[in-house]
Amino acid sequence: MLRYASALTMLAAxxxxxxxxxxxxVELTMYYPIAVGGPLTxxxxxxxxxxxxxxxxxxxxxxxxxxxxxTRIKALSALNSGDPAQLAVMFSIDxxxxxxxxxxxxxxxxxxxxxxxxWLDGFYPALMANGQIEGQTWGVPxxxxxxxxxxxxxxxxxxxxxxETAPQTxxxxxxxxxxxxxxDRWGIMIxxxxxxxxxxxALAIQNGxxxxxxxxxxxxxxxxxxxxxxxxxxxxxQEHGVMPEGTIEWGTLRQAFLEGQTAMMWHSxxxxxxxxxxxxxxxxxxxxxxNERRGSPTGGGNFYIFKDAxxxxxxxxxxxIKFMTSPEQAAKWSIETGYMGVSPAxxxxxxxxxxxxxxxxxxxxxxxxxxxxxxxxxxxxxxxxEGLNNAIQAALTGTQSPEExxxxxxAAAERLLDAxx
Amino acid sequence: MALLRRRRAIHGWLxxxxxxxxxxxxxxxxxxxxxxxxxxxxxxxxxxSEFVGTGNYQRIFDDPTFxxxxxxxxxxxxxxxxVSIGLALVMALWANARIPARxxxxxxxxxxxxxxxxxxxxxxxxxxxxxxxxxDQIGALFGAPSVxxxxxxxxxxxxxxxxxxxxxxxxxxxxxxxALQTIPPDLEEAADIEGASRWTYTRRVVLPLLMxxxxxxxxxxxxxxxxxxxxxFILTKGGPNDxxxxxxxxxxxxxxxxxxxxxxAAMTVLVLAVLGALAAFQFFVIDRxxxxx
Amino acid sequence: MSLLxxxxxxxxxxxxxxxxxxxxxxxxxxxxxxxxxxxxxLLAPWTLENFRxxxxxxxxxRYFLNSFLxxxxxxxxxxxxxxxxxxxxxxxxxxxxxxxxxxxxxxxxILPEVLIVENYRIAVQLGLIDSILGIGAPYMASAFxxxxxxxxxxxxxxxxxEMARVEGCSLLGVLWRVYVxxxxxxxxxxxxxxxxxxxxxxxxxxxxTNSDTTRPLTVGLSIFAAPENGVxxxxxxxxxxxxxxxxxxxxxIFQRQFVQAFLRAGIK
Lengths: 421, 293, 268
What we know:
- The structure holds three protein chains of three kinds.
- Chain A is built from 19 helices and ten strands.
- Chain A is of the alpha/beta class.
- Chain A has two domains: 2-144 and 299-359, D-Maltodextrin-Binding Protein, domain 2; 145-298 and 372-418, D-Maltodextrin-Binding Protein, domain 2.
- The two termini of chain A are 31 Å apart.
- In chain B, helix 7 packs across helix 9.
- The model of chain B has no long low-confidence stretch (mean pLDDT 87).
- Chain A: Belongs to the bacterial solute-binding protein 1 family.
């Protein structure tokens, strides 16, 4: 162990501390996803190019691989087949499965010295929650979000509502939704394809419950408060008539909002810049409403370093990650997309200070972090999540009652998680 | 003579070798290997892979999603096969008749065949999108309420079927068109002289002559009802609540999204069995019939 | 009855218009802003902006090149393998031929698409993941192609074959000098079918490719236009039009040949 550590020190010293340019050339391959609109691949390419300019010894191939699921599939497929991949941005909630498959290393094994420890400690704790498992840090936040409420101020005025006040409670939501709903538009849309469990988790948190246990080994779908949360979601469409019945498409929702199909939408803050650039009306952004409490799950992608990477590659990967999460880059990323600056320091930068001053909605997601909760994640997470997604869709489309649907999802989750207990 | 025969045999096998090597690598061996994989459990860090016999089959039979998906696929086949064959026949009869703008009509029918399924799905996505989609906008002209085609279990599979039919009918039409052109024109003249109506002529003369073509198309359509799933990736991803999920998509999902290759292999074996039955049907029923043509 | 005769052409035309309408709409939307497109603003000004946005959004040139390399390599592989095998089945007599032929025909039903799980594993073992060759390899020994070439070679007159042999041609020489030229129309037909199939293929390329350097157009389009991306109708229409344009234009120009090709390929 000692020898290992000293070798590591030497390597770290040679590649990082002294002069990266003098070290041997390292080639990195990084897979990353995009799940919201806008030309974000160019933004990532730009950041990577800057990094390469500053670190001549390291060249990076950044591969855009589709949505979060596609990216996990492609990165792991590359690892499987012996193609290089040293790091990836993947779902923050993939951590359990990645650990189980023995694919990633904790950052504690890669960082060296106090400075890097300080870097690791510098992120918002709420954003670290999904990556910290069994006492170690497996993922570092990059494109992170919470759910925020976008609303059309012109429509609020039109309906005689105060355009500066978004719904504060569930009751507000229903009432204001009713006032906003007309023959041509809906009061609110909450997307229920793509990531339905995420939206649902927000409702459950607001109703005072968590969907899963901290150890990733049990789920909580049959809790009365959870059922109630789903009933509320269903009722928005079926009872109150402020939301269309059936499922609402994640991908086309932003366009629906921009076209005035709905007065309010819940969506990832990662869409903020795209909405800002395209809205032809006055719009506002607000925290999600509360019932028992306020809250939203965090969401989005973390950096992971793969176990197969050599020591040298790990260090180079760490350099890249440090660069991409540095306050300046995080600020730039946040401005270009709407995703959060991942550390308090990002919000201290001049660029983000100036931006948020001129455009305060960019702060909503960060402010909401105080009440944010780790995103839904368990072992066997893709399947457990699929079960929950199906339950939500079954309830929303009226195929099953919320209670039945959730009971089925719970039973399926029990079956799947049993093997891990 | 024997020497010559032996030389011929060696030549024959040599000529076949490259193709046989490739077929073995990518068709025969994987078919057998699939069966083997389906008998082992999935290995994870905690539970290494072990022989489980029919355990994986038991597991998928216990999985309600599997049955939903199987049923969806049967429905998908039962809808797309007859409708696209029927439409193809009508299209072919029209495209073969003396009508104005015939070449435009023919081109219009056939064009979807040239598009990738993914592109076709993109085109149709905008037809199905609620609110501002084309179908809804047209519906709105007649005062119809907005329909969430892809977002409701009752309509999602139908929307998927429509895209498949749109893509397939023109392709099948071509085969009918070819068969129609081999029918001697004097048959129609004779029918005219006897005073038979066009309907009678079509029913009594044309359709029986098209029978072998129909069988050929039928087999193709059956294979396609297993194979054509690309549009799911764009349109519904199998949702909502698995209402439009088809078997091959579920196999892909199990293998590559859930990393459960054994379950995917077990399902693949079942699909292969169905295709095998189809092959037997082709060889023993259809081929025999067409021999007597 | 005569009423039907008048209505029928009309119905045929209506169906044709319906059939072509998704394509026409996408084409129209591709040249308009998304707001105008979704509001059916028929008089809205035309724009090329969507194409610019789409073009900058992904390495399309690379995708085009990949697709081109893919269909070429598949085609070359198929020509070689299917010619040799088809010739053996058609003109060389040896024991066991019929059984092997039935085995080969079985592959018509064992679709490469269905075998993705194991084929993926094999591609990993052969180091074919994320390579153009990896996308094409499972399709190269096509039972369909072998069958087609066998039929074509069978119809070559025996005298031509014997004449060439008398002149001292080897077996391969005969194949090359006599059979291949005689089967030219079949090759052309098969090439057209093969190119359009593989230009449009999706599932296996999706599974086997990981990066921009190998993705064919269909896979590139699917991740560019993934609904999660927050679809902008007009930009996606522009990308879709871009992707389908080459094959579609070729089709419209060589329509007759295309249709003939499909006919020849389909009917024994």
